[in-house]
Amino acid sequence: MIDLLNALVVLSNYVLIPALAYGSQLALGALGVTLIYGILRFSNFAHGDTMAFGAMVTILVTWLFQGWGISLGPLPTALLAIPFGIAATAALLLTTDQLVYRFYRQQKAAPVILVIVSMGVMFVMNGLVRFIIGPNDQRFSDGERFIISAREFKKITGLSEGLAFKTTQGITIVTAVIVVIALFWFLNRTRTGKSMRAFSDNEDLALLSGINPDRVVMVTWLIVAGLAATGGALYGLDKSFKPFIYLQLLLPIFAAAVVGGLGNPLGAIAGGFVIAFSEVLITYPLKKVLGYLLPDRFEPDTLVQLLSTDYKFAVSFTILIIVLLFRPTGLFKGKSV
Amino acid sequence: MTEPFLIGESMTGGYGRGADILYDCTIAVHPGEIAVIVGPNGAGKSTAMKAVFGMLNIHKGSVRLDGEDITHLSPQHRVAKGMAFVPQTSNIFTSLTVEENLEMGAFLRRDDIHVTMEQIFDLFPILRDKRKQAAGELSGGQRQQVAVGRALMTQPKVLMLDEPTAGVSPIVMDELFDRIIEVARTGISILMVEQNARQALEIADRGYVLVQGANRFTNTGAALLADPDVRKSFLGG
Amino acid sequence: MTINYKNIGLFFLVACLILGTGFVQSWNTALFILNMGLVSAIMALGVNLQWGFAGLFNVGIMGFVALGGLAAVLISMPPTTEAWAAGGLQVLLGLILGAATVTGAILVQTRTAAGRTRNLTTIAILIGGFFIFRAVFDGGVAAVEAIDAAGTGYLGGLNFGGANYKDWGFMTLISWPVGGLLAAGVAWLIGKTALGLRSDYLAIATLGISEIIIAVMKNEDWLSRGVKNVIGLPRPVPYEIELQESAGFIERTSSLGLDPVTSSSIVVKLGYAGLFSIVLVIVLILAQLALASPWGRMMRAIRDNEDAAEAMGKNVTARHLQIFILGSAICGVAGAMMTTLDSQLTPASYQPLRFTFLVWVMVIVGGSGNNFGSVLGGFLIFFLWVQVEPMGAILIQILTSGMAEDNGLRLHLLESVAHMRLLTMGLILILVLRFAPKGLIPEK
Fold this sequence. Notes:
heterotrimer, A: mainly alpha, ABC transporter involved in vitamin B12 uptake, BtuC, two-stranded antiparallel ribbon, C: mainly alpha, 18 helices
């Protein structure tokens, strides 16, 4: 019995909690990608760097607040700075849309052209972030490090295995839940939200119903800014901030969006967690868990790590390929065009 | 004769910069009347209606609504002026619920839309039962009802239908025509393109037979049905 | 044939830019730009084949370039005999077992009737095969990597020149086509799965596979030493030091009044430039012939209207697979050439912005669908890639000249000047797409 509990604790500590946090971050990213795909109808390669930009502004404002001595006590100061990150990202995205994307929308350019354009935007944003904050690792978390540390957990429960729950993980999960609830409330309950879904579903009919496309596009960018900046800042807070990491996040984010069904918000969330759990589970050495679960003589003598951590891309990629081959519209029905 | 409520007069034009498809074509509908456009495949029936709705470049002729020249208004602006259009395909938001489809139809309205919605549910009672269901899950006939309902939510003065009975069973077709007559009785003018010429002309106050983008026969529905030439060429004897 | 003065002018301009670098900065830099420009031009030709001819959206160029680099190591380095003895065969056996597992699963999927039995069998084969593969493979890898980990620790290549393997410089030349073959093989695998799906999916699939290729090269130490890098690859051209020691060379340079050390490195670089030019000319001629052939016309017909081509009985997916493999193979050749030029393989240096997206900038700016455009774009963009940094530094020096020497903003700007190249590349791409979407040399 105790063995079972210990196994559960190990699994939670190294797999469940990290994957929940990582999945939340991926889901926030994938929601942005999927919204852009649904409304503006292209795969936005600049999304990773949009997240980096939002995170960067959040970091700069956090430093400013820390300099002024403002803090949230046990919570990271960054939470106060995220709204500024969102505002700056919104300004950046709306400017980009006006200067760059709008022209191609009016031209009714093929989606693939917009994808290439977004590659250009990706370069610019990436350069901008590196130019302002540099290419290095930045730390900006403060406050309490743990909601519960491994030592405390062992003391309270008397188990031999500890369970550490980092503040940043807790905040990530809670924030993601709040953001997702707010987003779904907006999409399903408000007039503007419904008009966005209608526009994504059938653009021509939306125009016939008097829905203003410019307004839909603007609102989309605003929401994407909120999702990207929040997701980017949370990822930076939980792991660490490094501009090029966000470019690498593009693959799991796309995988999450496609696996869930491009254009389907619910799918993006499900996809985020599918990808996160598979990545963490497959690259985590299960020796300890199995050691508790199996009788002593079956205890594995290897690490039982299915794949080395460096191959986590391969996990997202394999899931992506399997889904594409067997269910091209994704787990939840996305757009197939 | 009085000025019709909506008239596309002597329209000549085509899509974009392409070749002309319509030649001196006139389509009109009076208040509370049902006007039907029929004709063989490729006669430009749908094109004529789209021209009236502003989805075509007309370089000759004009479109007037209630005496006002709207030739140069965009389709969206015509919607605001009280015209509603039900396309032949993709005429509902499949991922939205029936109720949301109707709400989107009333997107431009700022007043209370619940009265209109109740009227539509009275007209198509099945939609009331399925109001929380995604429109894409409905049957073909029910989808058409959603499509017509969505258009009616704008409280239009003219309702334009592009082949509303395409792909539905004969029973559903009769049912749909009955509903359309009901709508016309409330004072809404109806302009409709139909493949099922005979049934459509039976309910039509006015019929237009188009051939190769031009008017061939124009008369009341009953007169066209009685006309031996029309019967022979277009109604199969 | 009419002479297009504008295009000749454009090439002349790029030539002037590179020559200018030689006169103003140094001939070493100019030749570096020339050599990398040649390699970039070949990559751009490969991508142009896929995008310009067939409209295929490949975002995994980095992976194919890296595979070329891997081929350079696998062909031109000497085999590590001890490693082969220790576990080489076991590693190979493991790989064969792994391949057999996948093949078996695919066969079950394609040859047997659909249903639960089929899926369960497939899963059983995959899981069972995976553990057998790991059991055999891991042991071999451990044995191989234990052999002189600091110096080799990998299986090495196929250069049987023994202790004098560096004299077998011609092996590097062999590695170029092999790099193409390796890239072609992987392209075949991707194409089989992802072509025929929508263009976005191909993009995401290629993006994924390129990251995986890099991950493999970083982690599989038995293959190419991973992040420990393979250095000192043989060369197809003489070494500087040999030239400097050769009496004839010193005599000739001194008679021309040149410094033997500088001129030796210039001669070496010119040697590379000669070899690369030969490859570029061959690829360019073949691409031009392909473009004008019925095959090329069919490709463009498919690109312009896939449905119509399909209706006319063209097997669109098969054609796409052909051109996808060809284009990727060309990128692989270029990758092998680049690694030969560097004389080393450093997996960590493969960055998507540099090796995938920059090549896209070259193709778009040069003019997609036009081979000469791609060549021009390759040279021009690589020139800018190198020169934007010093030009930016000068610009910022001038702009901030009014500020104090230790002004924080000024120092930050000067420090960040390295990142201006990304910004500039993005701006160039956006501006070209907006104002000259057909590129500098448009498709005819």
